[in-house]
Amino acid sequence: MTTVTASPGAGNRTVAGPGLPAGRVHIADRVLQKTAERAAADVIGVDAKNVHVEIVSARDTAAVRVTSPFPVPRLDDTEAVRRATPVLEAARAAQSELRSRLTRLFGREISRVDLTISGASAPQRKRVL
C-alpha cells in the first residue's frame, strides 16, 4: 500500500492507498439509530415514528433490535386478507431485507436483526365527501 502525505499548505493529512484517508471515521450512535429506524420503517411499511431500534455494536459487527407494529390488511376487506402474505413469512422477509440494507448503509456486518412485532397497523379507511 502506498502512503502519501499532503503538501505543507494542505494541512497535516495523510492519505493511505489510492485516495483513501488514513484514520477512522466515527458515526454517533444516535445517527445509526435514526438511520436504522427509517430503514426499518421503509422495509416493514409503517411510519418511522412507530419504530424503535436498539443497536448493540462490536468492533466490526452490530446486532439490531427492532420493535414495530406490522401492517395487515383491513379485516373487512376479505380479498386483501386472502391475498396477504402470512405475518410470520412477511416478518422473516423483512428481517432479511433489513439486515442486507443496514449492512450496506453502515458499511459493516450486521450479525443479526431481532424483530418484535408490537401490534398491527391497518390502512386507514378513506372518507368520501
UniProtKB/TrEMBL annotation:
<protein>
    <submittedName>
        <fullName>Endo-1,4-beta-mannosidase</fullName>
    </submittedName>
</protein>
<feature type="region of interest" description="Disordered">
    <location>
        <begin position="1"/>
        <end position="20"/>
    </location>
</feature>
